[in-house]
DNA sequence: GACAACTCGTACAACAGTGTTCGGGTTACC
DNA sequence: GGTAACCCGAACACTGTTGTACGAGTTGTC
Protein backbone atom coordinates (compact mmCIF):
# COMPACT_ATOMS: atom_id res chain seq x y z
CA UNK A 1 0.00 0.00 0.00
CA UNK A 2 0.96 3.68 -0.12
CA UNK A 3 3.60 4.45 2.43
CA UNK A 4 3.48 8.18 1.83
CA UNK A 5 3.77 10.20 5.00
CA UNK A 6 0.34 11.67 4.38
CA UNK A 7 -0.98 10.54 7.74
CA UNK A 8 -3.49 8.29 6.05
CA UNK A 9 -1.73 5.07 7.06
CA UNK A 10 0.06 6.32 10.14
CA UNK A 11 3.09 4.68 11.70
CA UNK A 12 2.44 1.46 13.60
CA UNK A 13 3.30 1.57 17.22
CA UNK A 14 6.38 -0.35 18.33
CA UNK A 15 4.61 -2.84 20.58
CA UNK A 16 2.09 -3.57 17.85
CA UNK A 17 4.82 -4.55 15.41
CA UNK A 18 6.43 -6.67 18.10
CA UNK A 19 3.13 -8.42 18.73
CA UNK A 20 2.76 -9.23 15.05
CA UNK A 21 6.13 -10.90 15.39
CA UNK A 22 5.04 -12.81 18.45
CA UNK A 23 1.88 -13.99 16.72
CA UNK A 24 3.78 -15.25 13.69
CA UNK A 25 6.27 -17.14 15.85
CA UNK A 26 3.42 -18.63 17.88
CA UNK A 27 1.62 -19.62 14.69
CA UNK A 28 4.72 -21.38 13.37
CA UNK A 29 5.16 -23.19 16.67
CA UNK A 30 1.53 -24.25 17.01
CA UNK A 31 0.94 -25.15 13.37
CA UNK A 32 4.20 -27.06 13.45
CA UNK A 33 2.83 -29.24 16.21
CA UNK A 34 -0.70 -29.50 14.93
CA UNK A 35 -1.85 -28.38 11.52
CA UNK A 36 -5.32 -27.77 12.96
CA UNK A 37 -4.22 -25.41 15.71
CA UNK A 38 -6.92 -22.92 16.67
CA UNK A 39 -6.73 -19.16 16.58
CA UNK A 40 -7.29 -19.30 20.32
CA UNK A 41 -4.32 -21.59 20.87
CA UNK A 42 -2.08 -19.45 18.72
CA UNK A 43 -3.18 -16.32 20.51
CA UNK A 44 -2.62 -17.94 23.92
CA UNK A 45 0.82 -19.14 22.86
CA UNK A 46 1.66 -15.61 21.79
CA UNK A 47 0.45 -14.39 25.17
CA UNK A 48 -2.31 -12.31 23.59
CA UNK A 49 -6.07 -12.31 23.36
CA UNK A 50 -7.79 -13.97 20.44
CA UNK A 51 -9.42 -10.74 19.32
CA UNK A 52 -6.08 -8.98 19.24
CA UNK A 53 -4.86 -11.46 16.67
CA UNK A 54 -7.76 -10.53 14.42
CA UNK A 55 -6.61 -6.96 14.77
CA UNK A 56 -3.45 -7.89 12.87
CA UNK A 57 -4.67 -10.68 10.59
CA UNK A 58 -8.11 -10.46 9.08
CA UNK A 59 -8.64 -14.21 8.95
CA UNK A 60 -7.09 -17.50 9.79
CA UNK A 61 -6.20 -17.96 6.16
CA UNK A 62 -4.26 -14.69 6.15
CA UNK A 63 -2.38 -15.74 9.27
CA UNK A 64 -1.45 -19.14 7.86
CA UNK A 65 -0.20 -17.57 4.68
CA UNK A 66 1.82 -14.99 6.57
CA UNK A 67 3.32 -17.66 8.83
CA UNK A 68 4.28 -19.84 5.89
CA UNK A 69 5.75 -16.86 4.06
CA UNK A 70 7.87 -15.89 7.04
CA UNK A 71 9.02 -19.46 7.52
CA UNK A 72 10.02 -19.84 3.89
CA UNK A 73 11.73 -16.44 3.87
CA UNK A 74 13.69 -17.37 6.99
CA UNK A 75 14.65 -20.64 5.39
CA UNK A 76 15.62 -19.11 2.10
CA UNK A 77 17.73 -16.53 3.88
CA UNK A 78 19.50 -19.23 5.89
CA UNK A 79 20.11 -21.24 2.75
CA UNK A 80 21.38 -18.22 0.88
CA UNK A 81 24.32 -17.95 3.27
CA UNK A 82 25.55 -21.44 2.49
CA UNK A 83 28.58 -22.07 0.35
CA UNK A 84 27.33 -24.45 -2.30
CA UNK A 85 30.04 -23.85 -4.85
CA UNK A 86 32.12 -26.95 -4.29
CA UNK A 87 31.44 -30.58 -5.08
CA UNK A 88 27.66 -30.81 -5.52
CA UNK A 89 27.57 -33.95 -3.44
CA UNK A 90 29.23 -32.21 -0.52
CA UNK A 91 26.97 -29.26 -1.21
CA UNK A 92 23.95 -31.54 -1.10
CA UNK A 93 25.10 -32.78 2.26
CA UNK A 94 25.46 -29.21 3.46
CA UNK A 95 22.06 -28.35 2.09
CA UNK A 96 20.46 -31.27 3.89
CA UNK A 97 22.07 -30.39 7.19
CA UNK A 98 21.01 -26.78 6.91
CA UNK A 99 17.48 -27.27 5.69
CA UNK A 100 16.71 -30.10 8.08
CA UNK A 101 15.67 -27.87 10.94
CA UNK A 102 13.71 -25.70 8.57
CA UNK A 103 11.84 -28.62 7.04
CA UNK A 104 11.13 -30.09 10.44
CA UNK A 105 9.42 -26.90 11.51
CA UNK A 106 7.78 -26.25 8.16
CA UNK A 107 6.34 -29.72 7.77
CA UNK A 108 3.02 -29.33 9.51
CA UNK A 109 2.76 -25.65 8.64
CA UNK A 110 2.93 -26.59 5.00
CA UNK A 111 0.31 -29.22 5.56
CA UNK A 112 -1.93 -26.70 7.24
CA UNK A 113 -1.42 -24.29 4.36
CA UNK A 114 -2.35 -26.98 1.86
CA UNK A 115 -5.71 -27.31 3.58
CA UNK A 116 -6.60 -23.69 4.13
CA UNK A 117 -4.99 -21.85 1.23
CA UNK A 118 -6.33 -21.96 -2.31
CA UNK A 119 -4.69 -24.73 -4.36
CA UNK A 120 -1.53 -23.62 -6.08
CA UNK A 121 -0.86 -20.77 -3.67
CA UNK A 122 1.34 -23.00 -1.53
CA UNK A 123 3.34 -24.21 -4.48
CA UNK A 124 3.79 -20.59 -5.49
CA UNK A 125 5.20 -19.63 -2.10
CA UNK A 126 7.29 -22.77 -1.90
CA UNK A 127 8.81 -22.18 -5.30
CA UNK A 128 11.83 -20.13 -4.26
CA UNK A 129 13.35 -22.52 -1.70
CA UNK A 130 12.58 -25.49 -3.92
CA UNK A 131 14.36 -23.79 -6.79
CA UNK A 132 17.52 -23.66 -4.73
CA UNK A 133 17.65 -27.41 -4.31
CA UNK A 134 16.65 -27.88 -7.92
CA UNK A 135 19.47 -25.67 -9.20
CA UNK A 136 21.95 -27.57 -7.08
CA UNK A 137 20.80 -30.91 -8.40
CA UNK A 138 20.89 -29.68 -11.98
CA UNK A 139 24.48 -28.55 -11.56
CA UNK A 140 25.45 -31.88 -10.07
CA UNK A 141 23.93 -33.63 -13.06
CA UNK A 142 25.78 -31.41 -15.51
CA UNK A 143 29.02 -32.16 -13.70
CA UNK A 144 28.32 -35.86 -13.85
CA UNK A 145 28.46 -36.45 -10.10
CA UNK A 146 24.70 -36.88 -9.76
CA UNK A 147 22.60 -39.24 -11.80
CA UNK A 148 20.77 -37.92 -14.84
CA UNK A 149 18.49 -40.87 -15.50
CA UNK A 150 15.68 -39.58 -13.30
CA UNK A 151 13.60 -36.40 -13.64
CA UNK A 152 14.92 -33.46 -11.70
CA UNK A 153 11.51 -32.79 -10.20
CA UNK A 154 11.39 -36.32 -8.90
CA UNK A 155 14.75 -35.99 -7.20
CA UNK A 156 13.73 -32.72 -5.59
CA UNK A 157 10.53 -34.38 -4.45
CA UNK A 158 12.36 -37.33 -2.92
CA UNK A 159 14.65 -34.97 -1.04
CA UNK A 160 11.64 -33.15 0.30
CA UNK A 161 9.60 -36.23 1.15
CA UNK A 162 12.39 -37.96 3.03
CA UNK A 163 13.10 -34.89 5.11
CA UNK A 164 9.43 -34.39 5.84
CA UNK A 165 9.04 -38.05 6.71
CA UNK A 166 12.02 -37.91 9.03
CA UNK A 167 10.48 -34.89 10.72
CA UNK A 168 7.29 -36.88 11.27
CA UNK A 169 9.32 -39.75 12.71
CA UNK A 170 10.95 -37.38 15.14
CA UNK A 171 7.70 -35.87 16.35
CA UNK A 172 6.32 -39.36 16.87
CA UNK A 173 9.33 -40.43 18.85
CA UNK A 174 10.54 -43.05 16.38
CA UNK A 175 13.75 -41.20 15.61
CA UNK A 176 16.21 -39.04 17.53
CA UNK A 177 16.40 -35.54 16.11
CA UNK A 178 20.19 -35.52 16.24
CA UNK A 179 20.49 -38.59 14.05
CA UNK A 180 18.19 -37.37 11.33
CA UNK A 181 20.48 -35.21 9.16
CA UNK A 182 23.18 -37.86 9.01
CA UNK A 183 20.73 -40.62 8.13
CA UNK A 184 19.11 -38.51 5.44
CA UNK A 185 22.43 -37.68 3.85
CA UNK A 186 23.75 -41.24 4.08
CA UNK A 187 20.59 -42.48 2.42
CA UNK A 188 20.15 -39.93 -0.33
CA UNK A 189 23.72 -39.52 -1.50
CA UNK A 190 23.94 -43.06 -2.91
CA UNK A 191 20.37 -42.73 -4.17
CA UNK A 192 21.41 -39.73 -6.24
CA UNK A 193 24.77 -41.08 -7.40
CA UNK A 194 25.18 -41.89 -11.09
CA UNK A 195 24.34 -45.52 -11.92
CA UNK A 196 27.60 -46.28 -13.65
CA UNK A 197 30.29 -45.15 -11.26
CA UNK A 198 30.25 -43.62 -7.83
CA UNK A 199 33.82 -42.54 -8.43
CA UNK A 200 35.23 -39.65 -6.43
CA UNK A 201 36.95 -37.67 -9.02
CA UNK B 1 -32.66 -77.79 26.35
CA UNK B 2 -33.72 -74.87 24.28
CA UNK B 3 -30.56 -73.51 22.73
CA UNK B 4 -31.68 -69.98 23.12
CA UNK B 5 -28.25 -68.47 22.77
CA UNK B 6 -28.86 -64.75 22.94
CA UNK B 7 -27.19 -63.24 19.90
CA UNK B 8 -27.56 -59.51 19.59
CA UNK B 9 -27.95 -59.49 15.81
CA UNK B 10 -29.21 -63.02 15.08
CA UNK B 11 -28.91 -62.93 11.31
CA UNK B 12 -27.91 -59.92 9.25
CA UNK B 13 -29.87 -59.47 6.08
CA UNK B 14 -27.97 -59.89 2.85
CA UNK B 15 -28.40 -56.34 1.58
CA UNK B 16 -27.32 -54.97 4.93
CA UNK B 17 -24.03 -56.82 4.78
CA UNK B 18 -23.56 -55.63 1.23
CA UNK B 19 -24.18 -52.05 2.33
CA UNK B 20 -21.55 -52.31 5.03
CA UNK B 21 -19.20 -53.29 2.24
CA UNK B 22 -20.27 -50.35 0.13
CA UNK B 23 -19.78 -47.96 3.02
CA UNK B 24 -16.27 -49.21 3.72
CA UNK B 25 -15.28 -48.91 0.08
CA UNK B 26 -16.75 -45.42 -0.07
CA UNK B 27 -14.91 -44.47 3.10
CA UNK B 28 -11.61 -45.66 1.65
CA UNK B 29 -12.25 -43.74 -1.55
CA UNK B 30 -13.32 -40.51 0.14
CA UNK B 31 -10.74 -40.56 2.94
CA UNK B 32 -8.13 -41.36 0.33
CA UNK B 33 -8.95 -38.15 -1.50
CA UNK B 34 -9.52 -36.00 1.56
CA UNK B 35 -8.67 -37.03 5.09
CA UNK B 36 -11.45 -34.73 6.35
CA UNK B 37 -14.26 -36.26 4.32
CA UNK B 38 -17.55 -36.01 6.19
CA UNK B 39 -19.99 -38.78 7.01
CA UNK B 40 -22.38 -37.17 4.56
CA UNK B 41 -19.91 -37.37 1.68
CA UNK B 42 -19.06 -40.96 2.47
CA UNK B 43 -22.73 -41.89 2.69
CA UNK B 44 -23.49 -40.15 -0.60
CA UNK B 45 -20.56 -41.89 -2.28
CA UNK B 46 -21.90 -45.20 -1.02
CA UNK B 47 -25.29 -44.26 -2.44
CA UNK B 48 -26.90 -44.33 0.99
CA UNK B 49 -28.35 -41.91 3.47
CA UNK B 50 -26.20 -40.48 6.20
CA UNK B 51 -28.38 -41.94 8.93
CA UNK B 52 -28.08 -45.40 7.46
CA UNK B 53 -24.33 -45.26 7.91
CA UNK B 54 -24.82 -44.65 11.62
CA UNK B 55 -26.91 -47.79 11.65
CA UNK B 56 -23.77 -49.75 10.85
CA UNK B 57 -21.05 -47.69 12.50
CA UNK B 58 -21.77 -46.02 15.78
CA UNK B 59 -19.42 -43.11 15.18
CA UNK B 60 -17.07 -41.60 12.68
CA UNK B 61 -14.16 -42.93 14.67
CA UNK B 62 -15.49 -46.47 14.39
CA UNK B 63 -15.88 -46.08 10.64
CA UNK B 64 -12.38 -44.74 10.15
CA UNK B 65 -10.91 -47.58 12.14
CA UNK B 66 -12.93 -50.16 10.23
CA UNK B 67 -11.89 -48.64 6.91
CA UNK B 68 -8.23 -48.61 7.85
CA UNK B 69 -8.43 -52.16 9.12
CA UNK B 70 -10.00 -53.37 5.89
CA UNK B 71 -7.43 -51.51 3.82
CA UNK B 72 -4.52 -52.94 5.74
CA UNK B 73 -6.01 -56.42 5.66
CA UNK B 74 -6.49 -56.17 1.91
CA UNK B 75 -2.94 -54.98 1.53
CA UNK B 76 -1.48 -57.62 3.78
CA UNK B 77 -3.37 -60.30 1.89
CA UNK B 78 -2.10 -59.00 -1.44
CA UNK B 79 1.45 -58.87 -0.14
CA UNK B 80 1.18 -62.37 1.28
CA UNK B 81 0.76 -63.78 -2.22
CA UNK B 82 4.05 -62.37 -3.43
CA UNK B 83 7.08 -64.55 -4.03
CA UNK B 84 9.81 -62.84 -2.09
CA UNK B 85 12.16 -65.77 -1.79
CA UNK B 86 14.71 -64.79 -4.43
CA UNK B 87 17.28 -62.04 -4.51
CA UNK B 88 16.15 -59.55 -1.87
CA UNK B 89 16.83 -56.66 -4.24
CA UNK B 90 14.51 -58.13 -6.85
CA UNK B 91 12.10 -58.91 -4.04
CA UNK B 92 12.24 -55.31 -2.90
CA UNK B 93 11.39 -54.24 -6.41
CA UNK B 94 8.45 -56.63 -6.42
CA UNK B 95 7.34 -55.40 -3.04
CA UNK B 96 7.42 -51.78 -4.19
CA UNK B 97 5.43 -52.52 -7.32
CA UNK B 98 2.82 -54.44 -5.37
CA UNK B 99 2.42 -52.12 -2.43
CA UNK B 100 2.45 -48.96 -4.49
CA UNK B 101 -1.25 -48.99 -5.23
CA UNK B 102 -2.02 -49.92 -1.66
CA UNK B 103 0.08 -47.12 -0.24
CA UNK B 104 -1.38 -44.63 -2.68
CA UNK B 105 -4.87 -45.45 -1.45
CA UNK B 106 -3.91 -45.78 2.18
CA UNK B 107 -1.97 -42.54 2.40
CA UNK B 108 -4.73 -40.12 3.29
CA UNK B 109 -6.73 -42.77 5.13
CA UNK B 110 -3.79 -43.27 7.43
CA UNK B 111 -3.53 -39.55 7.90
CA UNK B 112 -7.20 -39.37 8.76
CA UNK B 113 -6.81 -42.20 11.23
CA UNK B 114 -3.89 -40.42 12.90
CA UNK B 115 -6.17 -37.50 13.60
CA UNK B 116 -9.29 -39.27 14.79
CA UNK B 117 -8.02 -42.44 16.43
CA UNK B 118 -6.33 -42.51 19.82
CA UNK B 119 -2.54 -42.24 19.52
CA UNK B 120 -0.84 -45.58 19.15
CA UNK B 121 -3.90 -47.31 17.77
CA UNK B 122 -2.81 -46.60 14.20
CA UNK B 123 0.68 -47.91 14.75
CA UNK B 124 -0.88 -51.01 16.24
CA UNK B 125 -2.99 -51.65 13.16
CA UNK B 126 -0.16 -50.78 10.82
CA UNK B 127 2.25 -53.14 12.50
CA UNK B 128 1.54 -56.24 10.44
CA UNK B 129 2.15 -54.84 6.94
CA UNK B 130 5.18 -52.89 8.16
CA UNK B 131 6.64 -56.08 9.62
CA UNK B 132 6.57 -57.64 6.17
CA UNK B 133 8.81 -55.01 4.67
CA UNK B 134 10.99 -55.06 7.74
CA UNK B 135 11.53 -58.81 7.53
CA UNK B 136 12.48 -58.50 3.88
CA UNK B 137 15.01 -55.80 4.57
CA UNK B 138 16.50 -57.77 7.45
CA UNK B 139 17.00 -60.77 5.22
CA UNK B 140 18.67 -58.64 2.57
CA UNK B 141 21.05 -57.30 5.15
CA UNK B 142 21.94 -60.78 6.39
CA UNK B 143 22.63 -61.83 2.83
CA UNK B 144 24.85 -58.84 2.30
CA UNK B 145 22.97 -57.41 -0.66
CA UNK B 146 21.42 -54.57 1.34
CA UNK B 147 23.39 -52.15 3.46
CA UNK B 148 23.69 -52.76 7.18
CA UNK B 149 25.09 -49.40 8.22
CA UNK B 150 21.68 -47.83 8.80
CA UNK B 151 18.93 -48.77 11.29
CA UNK B 152 16.33 -51.14 9.91
CA UNK B 153 13.52 -48.93 11.17
CA UNK B 154 14.95 -46.01 9.28
CA UNK B 155 15.06 -47.96 6.03
CA UNK B 156 11.49 -49.11 6.47
CA UNK B 157 10.53 -45.53 7.17
CA UNK B 158 12.26 -44.23 4.07
CA UNK B 159 10.48 -46.83 1.96
CA UNK B 160 7.19 -45.74 3.42
CA UNK B 161 7.81 -42.01 3.18
CA UNK B 162 8.95 -42.09 -0.42
CA UNK B 163 5.91 -44.10 -1.49
CA UNK B 164 3.60 -41.82 0.45
CA UNK B 165 5.28 -38.77 -1.02
CA UNK B 166 4.98 -40.14 -4.51
CA UNK B 167 1.30 -40.75 -3.88
CA UNK B 168 0.91 -37.11 -2.85
CA UNK B 169 2.73 -36.03 -6.01
CA UNK B 170 0.34 -38.06 -8.10
CA UNK B 171 -2.78 -36.63 -6.50
CA UNK B 172 -1.41 -33.15 -7.01
CA UNK B 173 -0.67 -33.79 -10.66
CA UNK B 174 3.11 -33.45 -10.38
CA UNK B 175 3.71 -37.07 -11.30
CA UNK B 176 2.15 -39.64 -13.61
CA UNK B 177 0.82 -42.61 -11.69
CA UNK B 178 2.32 -45.06 -14.15
CA UNK B 179 5.84 -43.74 -13.66
CA UNK B 180 5.78 -43.89 -9.88
CA UNK B 181 6.68 -47.52 -9.14
CA UNK B 182 9.64 -47.48 -11.51
CA UNK B 183 10.98 -44.20 -10.13
CA UNK B 184 10.62 -45.39 -6.56
CA UNK B 185 12.47 -48.61 -7.26
CA UNK B 186 15.21 -46.91 -9.29
CA UNK B 187 15.74 -44.46 -6.46
CA UNK B 188 15.62 -46.75 -3.46
CA UNK B 189 17.60 -49.70 -4.76
CA UNK B 190 20.88 -47.77 -4.90
CA UNK B 191 19.95 -46.04 -1.66
CA UNK B 192 19.70 -49.42 0.05
CA UNK B 193 22.72 -51.01 -1.63
CA UNK B 194 25.78 -51.76 0.53
CA UNK B 195 28.37 -48.95 0.61
CA UNK B 196 31.12 -50.95 -1.05
CA UNK B 197 28.53 -52.72 -3.13
CA UNK B 198 28.95 -55.91 -5.19
CA UNK B 199 28.71 -54.15 -8.55
CA UNK B 200 30.87 -51.27 -7.46
CA UNK B 201 34.58 -50.81 -7.62
C1' DG C 1 -48.17 -62.90 2.09
C1' DA C 2 -46.65 -61.21 6.43
C1' DC C 3 -43.28 -59.70 9.45
C1' DA C 4 -39.16 -57.95 10.68
C1' DA C 5 -35.19 -55.86 9.04
C1' DC C 6 -33.63 -52.25 6.63
C1' DT C 7 -33.78 -47.79 4.59
C1' DC C 8 -35.05 -42.94 3.81
C1' DG C 9 -35.58 -37.86 4.77
C1' DT C 10 -36.14 -34.39 7.83
C1' DA C 11 -35.48 -32.38 11.91
C1' DC C 12 -33.18 -31.54 16.21
C1' DA C 13 -29.64 -30.77 19.96
C1' DA C 14 -24.88 -30.30 20.98
C1' DC C 15 -20.43 -28.74 20.05
C1' DA C 16 -16.42 -26.36 18.10
C1' DG C 17 -14.38 -22.87 15.43
C1' DT C 18 -14.53 -18.44 12.92
C1' DG C 19 -15.20 -13.63 12.62
C1' DT C 20 -17.43 -9.35 14.62
C1' DT C 21 -19.00 -5.94 18.03
C1' DC C 22 -18.76 -3.32 22.17
C1' DG C 23 -17.16 -0.95 26.28
C1' DG C 24 -13.49 -0.22 29.22
C1' DG C 25 -8.68 -0.33 30.46
C1' DT C 26 -3.59 0.24 29.35
C1' DT C 27 0.43 2.05 27.14
C1' DA C 28 3.46 4.00 23.62
C1' DC C 29 4.59 8.33 21.74
C1' DC C 30 4.50 13.35 20.84
C1' DG D 1 0.44 14.88 30.30
C1' DG D 2 -2.79 14.23 26.76
C1' DT D 3 -4.22 11.64 22.94
C1' DA D 4 -4.67 8.11 19.97
C1' DA D 5 -3.30 3.66 19.23
C1' DC D 6 -3.53 -0.56 21.19
C1' DC D 7 -5.03 -4.51 24.07
C1' DC D 8 -8.48 -7.03 26.73
C1' DG D 9 -12.52 -10.09 27.79
C1' DA D 10 -17.05 -11.19 27.19
C1' DA D 11 -20.74 -11.69 24.27
C1' DC D 12 -22.92 -12.64 19.83
C1' DA D 13 -24.18 -14.52 15.11
C1' DC D 14 -22.88 -17.81 11.78
C1' DT D 15 -21.24 -22.07 9.80
C1' DG D 16 -20.29 -26.92 9.54
C1' DT D 17 -20.15 -31.44 11.60
C1' DT D 18 -21.48 -35.03 14.66
C1' DG D 19 -24.81 -37.97 16.68
C1' DT D 20 -29.84 -38.91 17.81
C1' DA D 21 -35.03 -39.20 17.20
C1' DC D 22 -39.10 -39.96 14.71
C1' DG D 23 -42.34 -41.52 11.21
C1' DA D 24 -43.01 -43.57 7.02
C1' DG D 25 -41.71 -46.19 3.08
C1' DT D 26 -39.26 -50.33 0.97
C1' DT D 27 -37.37 -54.91 0.65
C1' DG D 28 -35.32 -59.33 1.97
C1' DT D 29 -36.69 -63.64 4.05
C1' DC D 30 -39.43 -67.35 6.19
Topology (SSEs and partners):
2 copies of one chain form a homodimer.
Chain A (H helix, E strand, L loop, with lengths): L13 H20 L5 H8 L3 H7 L3 H21 L7 H29 L4 H23 L8 H20 L8 H13 L9
Chain A binds a DNA duplex (30 and 30 nucleotides) through α1 and α3.
Structure description:
Two copies of one chain form a homodimer. Chain A is an all-alpha fold and 201 residues long. In chain A, 70% of the residues lie in helices and 0% in strands. Chain A has helices at residues 14-33, 39-46, 50-56, 60-80, 88-116, 121-143, 152-171, 180-192. The longest helix of chain A is centred in the middle third of the chain and has 29 residues, at 88-116. Residues 1-8 of chain A have low confidence and may be disordered. The A-B interface holds A 36, 115, 149-151, 153-155, 157-158, 160-162, 164-166, 168-169, 174-175, 183, 186-188, 190-191, 193, 195, 197-198 and B 36, 115, 149-151, 153-155, 157-158, 160-162, 164-166, 168-169, 174-175, 183, 186-188, 190-191, 193, 195, 200. Chain A binds a DNA duplex (30 and 30 nucleotides) through residues 10-16, 19, 38-40, 48-52, 54-55, 58-60.
Task: Output the helix-strand order of chain A.
Answer: HHHHHHHH
Radius of gyration of chain A: 20 Å
List the quaternary state of the chains: homodimer
Give the total of beta strands of chain A: 0
Total number of helices of chain A: 8
Please bin the fraction of helical residues of chain A: over 70%
Kindly report the greatest chain-chain contact and the residue count on each side: A-B, 30 and 29 residues
Q: Which term fits the overall shape of chain A?
A: elongated
The major sheet of chain A is characterized as: none
Low-confidence stretches of chain A: 1-8
How much β-strand is present in the residues of chain A? under 5%
Gap between N and C termini of chain A: 54 Å
Mean pLDDT over the full residue set of chain A: 88
Structural class of chain A: mainly alpha
